[in-house]
Amino acid sequence: MRRPVSLRTRVALASALSAALAIVAMSVVFLLIVQTRTDDELDAALRSLEVVRVDGTASAAACDGRVVRLEPNGDGCWELPADLREGDRVDLGLAVPRDVVATAVERRRFHIVAVALSAIALAAALGWFFAHRSVLPLRRLTAATKDVGTRLSLDFPRRTATTETAELATAMDQMLGRIDAERRHTADALATARDFAATAAHELRTPLTSMRTDLQVLSAMELPAATRAEILTDVLAAQSSLESTLSALERLALGELTTDADREEVDLDELVDEVVDDARRRHPDVTLISTVPQPIRLAGLAAGLRSVVDNAITNAIRHGGATRVEVAARRAPAGMVTLTVDDDGTGVPPEERDKVFDRFYRGLDTETPGSGLGLALVAQQARLHGGTAALTDSPLGGVRLTVTLATAPRATPPGQDPSASDSRPPP
According to the UniProt record, where is the region Disordered (predicted)? Predict the structure, then answer.
């Protein structure tokens, strides 16, 4: 394949061609001017000659039509022929051979061509030199690009570069940043998929085995109606548990793949009221109160925030046996929002308050069914919203869930995975 011409060579050739065109045009004009001015100067010189007598007295007379030839006398003067008498009038014409003018013009043309060729060569050399200096930043940028590794970032000094090279380096750095972000997003997706598959295989094996055993018993044995009904109830319960576990795992997986592009403006006060109203319809025997004293808007994930409030209420009622749940949201300093859920249930022992945020962890004394993913979802959403989740004692006698949320997305430090940070507050 033919190698492309370098930028330096192209600039040098362009400089030489531009100089040649300009110099040729100027030379043609200059030669025309020289030739015209040479003719004019010779004409003026001839017109300035005078006819004088030997004694120095000038004479001039009108021409009567006669033509005579002057003859040199050897002293640098020209004499009239001897057959002319005193008082005769003649027409005196002076002329210079054309080859004298041509020689003068040709000599000047040679000088002009020599200067033009020198100027063209100088322009090419200067174009080559300055082009070489101009492409040095591009060469350094090329070398920096070749050194790009797994970090996908250019190590290129922009202060010493030209404006165009610095802009190109910035554009390339931004492109590499986007590629790196997409690569990390793809890696996160693959890791999430592997985690989902491994977790699902581990957590679903036991209920699936139990369901298979129950179904085999139903198909192979003649059982009393009451026993069959009990086994069918167990199968349906196992199926419901599988469904809720898969649904929770799906929400966790989707949360790990969330990006800033998925965020939207959320009215937290309206969202809390809606979730509490829905919970009232599902739990008519529980007192549910929402307290949001002022409108709160934040850039977040509406579905994720809804799951935070819903899971907190569900856990308080299902696992804590709460009969009263109060949900409140208030603004906090530094652009944060504090969401609290208080209940009057049995609470959570202090030594388990950190562990309950782990996936599939269920309290030692818990007897109610569940996937163990509810508070893990809460912790994940708190992390995705730039905040934390923690359990403390509640004024109602049970437990208080405190979730902090940022009203705007927090910038992630370079090289840090936003989904890898811990959502729990420091001890």
Answer: 407-427
The mean pLDDT of the chain is 74
The answer on 239 and 206 residing in a single domain is: yes
- In this structure, which amino acid lies at residue 165? T
Residue 391: strand, helix, or coil: strand
* pLDDT, tens only, 347-362: 888 888 888 888 767 6
Q: Return the sign of the alpha-carbon dihedral for residues 396, 271, 385, 378.
A: positive
No. of helices (H) and no. of strands (E), the chain:
7, 9
- DSSP letter at 57? -
- What's the pLDDT band for 158 if we cut at 50, 70, 90? low
Checking if the pLDDT of 55 tops 50, the result is: no
- 284/387 same-domain check: yes
**233 and 104 in one domain?**
no
Residue 117 CA to residue 104 CA, distance in Å, equals 20
Distance CA 385, CA 425 (A): 14
* Tens-digit pLDDT profile for residues 232-247: 888 887 777 677 667 6
Burial of 332 (0-12, 13-18, 19+ CB in 10 A): middle
CA-to-CA separations, 75 to 7, 48, 69, 72, 393, in angstroms, rounded: 69, 20, 17, 8, 135
Give the global pTM: 0.49
Judge if 266 and 396 occupy the same domain: yes
Q: Does position 341 have pLDDT exceeding 90, yes or no?
A: yes
Domain, as residue range, for 198:
157-257
* Residue 282 and residue 376 share a domain: yes
Based on the structure, what is the number of domains in the chain? 3
